[in-house]
Design a protein that fits this description.
Helix 2 runs antiparallel to helix 3, helix 3 packs antiparallel against helix 6 (154-177) and helix 4 (102-115) crosses helix 5 (120-144). This protein has one domain (27-236). It is elongated, with a radius of gyration of 25 Å. It is mostly helical. The longest helix has 47 residues, at 54-100. 32% of the residues are buried. It has helices at 9-15, 17-50, 54-100, 102-115, 120-144, 154-177, 181-206, 211-238.
Length: 241
Amino acid sequence: MTAPPVPDEAHDEAHGGGLGSRLNWLRAAVLGANDGVVSTAGLVVGVAGATESRSTLLTAGLAGLLAGSMSMAAGEYVSVSTQRDSEKAALAQEKRELRERPEAELDELTTLLSARGLTPEVAREAAEQLTERDALRAHARVELGIDPDELINPWHAAGASFLAFTAGALLPLLAIVLPPPAARLWVTVLSVLAALALTGWWSARLGQAPAAPAVLRTTAGGALAMAVTYGAGSLLGAAGV
């Protein structure tokens, strides 16, 4: 029996892990921008409830932007570094197992391919061809779901989170300091809700989910955050704190 062609590397990346990785990065960027919008909007609107001083609003907004973006970057770096270490450890273990018990690993790859719908005979022949070409790569992709050549980079993740949060945070910051005092609150609220509706719609589109619930969740959450912080700021301002 002739085995089916071994999957081409480039084709695999275009239709598998490569595309999935790009979508995950894009989704993370959208969510990071959403966090920047909500957290900074809540901060500056809360301060606006207590004071109309443009310099105070700018100082508070910049402090929130820097603190939030650095926190996001640091958290993403730690998280992705842990994931990368786990992937490298799994690859090292797989390499050791291939060296110490190659026949058992071949049987395991055959079983995994059979579970994907191939007949036992075809799965065995395909496993043998994949093993001859690059045993570690075959096991990494089929068994572990890892591309050894595209391990996630924690510095890239940290930088992307920093930039996404900063981009999102700039909107409420500019909206609260640029308009005249009488209009700044409404300009900020409306621009923030519009931005949140857009990020909700885009995140739903990336996940192929209905847009309306996502838009409602993001805008309702942002509106609640701004209402609570503005109320708190107003109470503190009235109390002269």
